[in-house]
Amino acid sequence: MPRPRFRLPGRASTLGRPVIVVVAVLVVLALAVASFALLRDSNGSASSVRTEDAVRTLPESPGSSATVDIDTTLYLPDTDAPAPAVLLAHGFGGDKNSVAAQARDLASRGLVVLAYSARGFGLSTGSIGLNDPDREVADARGLIDYLATRPEVQLDSPGDPRVGVAGGSYGGALALMAAGTDPRIDADAASITWNDLNQSLFPNYSVAEPSSQAPTPAVSEGSDAGVLKRGWAGIFFGAGAAPAPGGSGDAPSSTAPAGACGRFALQVCLAYAESAVSGQPSEATSELLRARSPRSFASSITAPTLLVQGQRDTLFGLDQADATARQIAAAGGSVQVRWFDGGHDAGGTDATADGAVADFLVQHLTGDGTDSARADSTFTYALAGDPTDQGDRARELTAAAYPGLSDATPTERQDFPLTSATGNDTQTVVRPPGGSPAALTSLPGVGSASVLGGAAAGLGGAASALLTGDIPGQTASFVTEPLDTSYTIVGTSSVSVTVGPTTSPSGTVLFAKLYDVADDGRRTLPSGLVSAVRVPPSDRPSTVSVTLPGMAYQVAAGHRVEVAFSTTDQAYAVPLEPAAVSVTLSDATLALPEVPAENAESTFPWVPVVGIAGLAVVVAALVALASFTSRRRTVAEVDESLVDVPLVITDLAKSYSNGFRAVDGVSFRVGAGQVLGLLGPNGAGKTTTLRMLMGLITPSSGEIRVFGHLVSPGAPVLSRLGSFVEGSGFLPHLSGMENLDLYWKATGRPAEDAHLEEALEIADLGTAIHRKVRSYSQGMRQRLAIAQAMLGLPDLMVLDEPTNGLDPPQIRTMRDVLIRYAQTGRTVLVSSHLLAEVEQTCTHVVVMNKGVVISSGTVDDLIGASGPLEFRVDRPTDAVSVLRGIDGMGEVVEAEPEGAIKAQLGVLDPAMVVRTLVSAGIGVSSASRSTRLEDVFLDLVHDDTDRLRHAAEASSGNGTTT
Questions:
Q1: pLDDT(787) > 70
Q2: Are 86 and 113 in contact (CB under 8 A)?
Q3: Cα separation, 902 vs 886, whole angstroms
Q4: What are the beta bridge partners of residue 927?
Q5: Spatial separation of the C-alpha atoms in residues 743 and 737, rounded to whole Å
Q6: Measuring CA to CA, how many Å separate 402 from each of 175, 210, 572, 595, 597?
Q7: Which residues neighbour 364 within 8 Å (Cβ) at sequence distance 6 or greater?
Q8: Which terminus of the chain has a smaller tally of CB atoms within 10 A, N or C?
Q9: 414-599, what's its fold?
């Protein structure tokens, strides 16, 4: 059945076919942007930050007498001294208000921030030029000139402010281009943006002659005249097509439909109109887009640069940040790369990404940033598809350096043999007339369409096939053998294929995908990522090297990796003429990249999952949960003698690639019915130990046994644990009750086993349990997280700082809950800084410092072994003389109040001491320990620190290094 065509008033008919989809996506995008901005603003801002709104008048272009008005807001921190500044740019379709929350956060950290609406957006006049170097980029330089005149801004020299630039997407490219043209810029942070807008909107990930070496993880090679990302291009054009207030924008011409250009500059408007019809860029359009891309300026960037790129992004892939990093590093610049579990298909940036940007800017502009921001060469990525992944969160890993930059070690790549899924070396696939039906792999702004596959199950085979990403007859597939061990793909993979021949004027268009195929046949297309390929027309077969999408994704042992080539995709401008295409593997190997890294020790903040339609989020969460429950379980080694012991840790150690040893030979045992407090100052290794216990990170040596089972990532015995370690990861758009229900369903256990009523009693949230979590205070989130940890009444419960954010009555309630919980025969391991609470709650204590155990035992023994005994007597002076005469007695002194004495008994029996006093005619009214756990803890840590310092000094004196 032919695809229906629609015509809207005032639009050319050739643009009508994608209009309905574009309009629908625009509505979703608008709602997402609005809800995202509201959520960010609702999360609070520093009340001490002052703001000033102003309109800056700048030249329309170099040498022009015409001007544009740029709407700005200046955020001033609460400080009297001049401070460094940040120029903050917004994303496409937004304005200065879109970055208000980020601006306030930066200002609260002591920076002056100038947020502004770019030309053609918000209340700013002028036309949208897609970061025209002579206009938008020149505006950035003009605003830096303005910052140099403000007395609140720190100057490096007259006219040269201490300034950084930052932005996401459209604003990220602007930040990079400004840094490449203005040497006054001292730091540059760009998020989810492009390197080459021509390659991003018209990708072609194939080359006839690939380079001999691919040094960086997400390096990609491509050719010009690619395939239009019709969905994303439509969103770009649609967001700027509305007329500006006051009618700003270029006047229509004879080659542009009346009103069609909206706020776009005429040159950009005509380029899009031409490309939307042909599906390919002209050479002039390619030159225009390249000139408005960081690729033309990156080699001139001298300021330290942070590149934050999303792993769930069908608009600007990881390869775009990779290319920018290579260009900056090749010119001698300093660059740090961070991939996060988000992007244009996941609500933009998240708290993790924005926090990394803030730390980077503060550190490089003031020198006061966090340690994680100081290592400019580090590379962080979020690992998805990992069997140890908890809930719907990706796990952060950090490598010492981004591979392949400057002197860094190149990325390792392993070759895996591929065979035809059909048994035929050559597979012929067809493109139907009109390119319809077309496979649906992703939705712009939403990402993978596979989450909708289940909804199509009742619509019949064709609809179901369309929503699962491939259509029979349109796809050639090649697969590896089952993997012997899990493999972590970090970056872009590559494969060589022979295509054709084809005589079609538009050449051959294919869409390459990399699937994770489970042992039961389930296929996962990570984030809906696809590589578009256009092979030029030829009367002979053409062999090309194809770069597959960049990702950080772990394929489990026993799974296969499939490479598929499809002839259609809804997100792209597919040629309309029918064709039959033959696809043959040329060397039958798939090169997969990997970057060894360690688990990052940063916390998991709750991620603001917002907008982009609640349906997509809920369905994606359910799919993730279903995947979680079906993960393969590993069979752990069991020590039968310990099956009744909740926890035994033996010689546990954890070292990182930089040589830091966070945990060094830790051993302790926790028995049934105990409440054990894990104590230690910051940096003692407590959280690292707990994360190894939970299977979140792997020990360097030693072992952990839970009920006799050796703990490893994904070990089945971990189902007997309940945990609250470093953040809850709740979905903010769901209520507290819905989050608890969703979490329990992920375990796959019956609802009646959840003991939900007990958990709700623990949470003590009242009617707030039915409110959305985004409205919760920190204390409310903490209580909900503890209730989640207690779902199912686990045999061993692990809590890291459970009382953070709780008020004194809630802390008292929590204390009683933990004591009662242990009295049922279950076990609790709790890490806390509130030593008075530990003393009243815990039966046993383990004290750590600098990665080692320095003391352990019962609370009574620990206090008794260290503190003096206090006696109340009728003749204190005589009592002191009597006690000092006892062999083995330690220090004895009179104390307050009157009639009290304190004696350090050491190993002496207190009963014997009391009898000696009574025999001497001294009346004893009471005898008690006066020492608190806090005193013992401080003494232990102080003594241990002194011991380590003296050992280091002694070693240094002997000519050795500690």
A1: yes
A2: yes
A3: 14
A4: 871
A5: 10
A6: 21, 22, 32, 9, 11
A7: 164, 186, 187, 304, 373
A8: N
A9: Jelly Rolls (2.60.120)
Largest CA distance in the chain: 117
Domain ranges of the chain: 231-290, 414-599, 633-861, 868-930
Task: Give CA–CA dist 934/292, Å, rounded.
Answer: 62
* Token reading at 413: 């790549």
**CATH homologous superfamily for 633-861?**
P-loop containing nucleotide triphosphate hydrolases (3.40.50.300)
- Whole-number Å distance between alpha carbons of 628 and 524: 13
Q: Indicate the helix (H) or strand (E) that contains 309.
A: strand 305-310
Report yes or no: 124 and 240 within 8 Å, Cβ to Cβ: no
CATH of domain 868-930: 3.30.70.100
Q: Which pLDDT band holds residue 74 (cuts at 50, 70, 90)?
A: very high
pLDDT per position as a tens digit, 788-847? 888 888 899 898 888 776 777 777 777 877 888 888 888 999 888 777 778 888 889 998
Q: Which residues lie below 8 Å from residue 455, measured CB to CB, with a gap of 6+?
A: 467, 619
Span 268-278, pLDDT tens digits = 888 888 888 88
- Three-state helix/strand/coil letters over 47-113: CCCEEEEEEEEEECCCCCCCEEEEEEEEEECCCCCCECEEEEECCCCCCHHHHHHHHHHHHHCCCEE
User: What pLDDT is stored for residue 932 in this prediction?
Assistant: 64
pLDDT in tens, 860-889: 777 665 567 888 999 999 999 999 999 888
Question: What is the distance between the alpha carbons of residues 58 and 891, in angstroms, rounded to a whole number?
Answer: 80
| Residues sharing a CB contact under 8 Å with residue 241, sequence separation 6 or more, in sequence order | 260, 261, 262, 263, 264
Instruction: At 228, give phi and psi (nearest 5°).
Output: -65, 130
Residue 511 in this model has a pLDDT that exceeds 90: yes
> What span, in angstroms and rounded, lies between the C-alpha atoms of 552 and 594?
9
Contact 185, 164 (CB under 8 A): yes
Residue 701 carries which side chain, given as an amino acid letter?
S
